[in-house]
Amino acid sequence: FYPVKKVIQAYPGDELLVVYDKDFKYGHNFYLIGTEEGKENYLNAPELPEEQEEYKEYIPEDIYVYKP
């Protein structure tokens, strides 16, 4: 978690949301949601009708790519 150490330390809440992406849908096997608003949006996402589900696309605002 070193690449996102500052995000973790600056997080105002008690619990971070770390999500396992088993299908590598977003290019990594885990991703971290680093804001309370983002966490609430993820956990309480509105249900999409099945025909819209296939068009749902993730557009990241800020992606950090760790390069050792």
UniProtKB/TrEMBL annotation:
It comes from the Eukaryota. This is WD repeat domain 63. The lineage of its organism: Eukaryota, Metazoa, Chordata, Craniata, Vertebrata.
